[in-house]
Amino acid sequence: MAEAGFYHALKVDNELCYGCTHCMNMCPTGAIRIRNGKASIRADWCVDCGECMRTCPVDAIYVEQDDFDKIFRFKCRVALVPAVLIGQFPSKVTEAEIFSVMRELGFTHVFQTEHTAGLINRTMIEVAREAGQKPVISSFCPAIVRLIQIKFPSLLDQVLRVKPPIDASAVYFRKRLEDEGIDPADIGIFYVTPCAAKIAAVKSPVGEEKSPLDGVINMSFIYNKIYRMVKNRYNSRSISPGEMLPLLSPRSIKYSLTGGEVSGMEGRCLAIDEIHNVIEFLEKLENDEIEGIDFLELRACDQSCAGGVLVGGNRFLTVERLHKRAVRFEGVADIPGDIKAYSNFMSKNVRIGELKPRSMMALDEDMSEAMRKMQQVRHLMCFLPGIDCGACGAPNCQSLAEDIVRKESQLSACVFIQRMMEKHSKLSSEHALRIIEKIWGRNRLDKNCNKKGAENDSK
């Protein structure tokens, strides 16, 4: 069931991980701890933003994804392609050439994800006009929706319950194929994803029982395959133009970039990207420090989808290329004719259900007990040094205090507390060493000239 638990696409390779704390310190929700010398991701706090994967120096954090061969389980194999995939390629490579290669790779149909963006924008305006509380917040980025569920549940009612283009396009194209007489069991729709959060959203959708997609394809994987084939064609001077799909409007082409949604919304709108920036803004919003905003476009990645962790190319070049492509299609309608033909069907199928809070940051479900535990945390902070060194295996002293109250750690995990306990003969040096080994693993403090940055490091 959709609300039974969060699926997570991000995993830790314990063979590669050496507990460097880069990911722990970068995680925006404090979901990572170091245990036994390895990074451990707390599933109920992770939003699959990919910051840990981005910052890992040894690629120990990876994305668990569908095997590409899964597409061949279906007779009708549909690739949903977002514009940022197109933006990875030099301008001389056309959309038609890219789609032609994708068919050679095994897809029977290729469809552009933002084809329904105009319809989604119109629906968002309608829902926003009816909203009782402002600002309304876009549901485009699944990492942000999960972030709000976990960290800002009081703002959840302000999230627009409208499908993003990835889901709306899957619903539309499946219906269109069924109307053409294709057996629904033969249709497999796969999204070429720039980020881990969209993988998680397909596996365990929020606000719906089941995702309209059948799987996801790593964008970096498919980009490399396409680019090799395209380059070989140019080298051999044999280029198949392929079938040209319906054109996207300039606004649809730029929809997944920062500012893509606000350009079509009403009133005072803000576009904020990069998850730490989003958190800082939402904290101010939750504390009633910000007024007069009608709509918020919030994206977890810098430069939005162009900065996703599975995008192989440079995000700034991707943005530039998409802006240049958009200029070429001035005059193309935001809502294409084929979408208008299905407007009645789509109007009934672009809304999502209730978004439930997942307040994992709370110390206890019972409010009075949570208040008591919070007082315990404040009391523990009187003893912790506030240095936030991370040597305890938690990102900061506040997190350690909360872990202690949850009975997931102990005060002696703090190396400074250990020294004080040893000074007053309340802890032996042998016991202190065992505590360190439990957090950082055995032999972690032994001399090792092969570790990263040491004199024998081969990289």
How are the secondary structure elements laid out?
Blueprint (H helix, E strand, L loop, with lengths): L9 E3 L9 H5 L5 E4 L2 E4 L9 H5 L5 E3 L12 E6 L1 H4 L8 H11 L3 E4 L4 H14 L5 E2 L4 H10 L13 H15 L7 E7 L2 H8 L11 E4 H18 L13 H4 L15 E5 L1 H12 L8 E5 L15 H14 L8 H5 L1 H5 L19 H15 L15 H9 L9 H9 L5 H12 L19
Parallel strand pairs: 5-6, 5-8, 7-11, 8-9, 10-11
Antiparallel strand pairs: 1-4, 2-3
Any overview of this molecule?
By secondary structure, the protein is α/β, with parallel strands linked by helices. The chain has 18 helices and eleven strands. The chain has helices spanning 22-26, 51-55, 83-86, 95-105, 117-130, 142-151, 165-179, 196-203, 219-236, 250-253, 275-286, 315-328, 337-341, 343-347, 367-381, 397-405, 415-423, 429-440, and strands at 10-12, 32-35, 38-41, 61-63, 76-81, 109-112, 136-137, 187-193, 215-218, 269-273, 295-299. The strands form four sheets. It has a four-stranded parallel β-sheet with strand order 6-5-8-9, with helices on both faces. A three-stranded parallel β-sheet has the order 7-11-10, covered by helices on one side. Helix 15 packs across helix 16 (397-405). The longest helix has 18 residues, at 219-236. The radius of gyration is 24 Å and the shape is globular. The model is unreliable at 236-242 (pLDDT under 50).
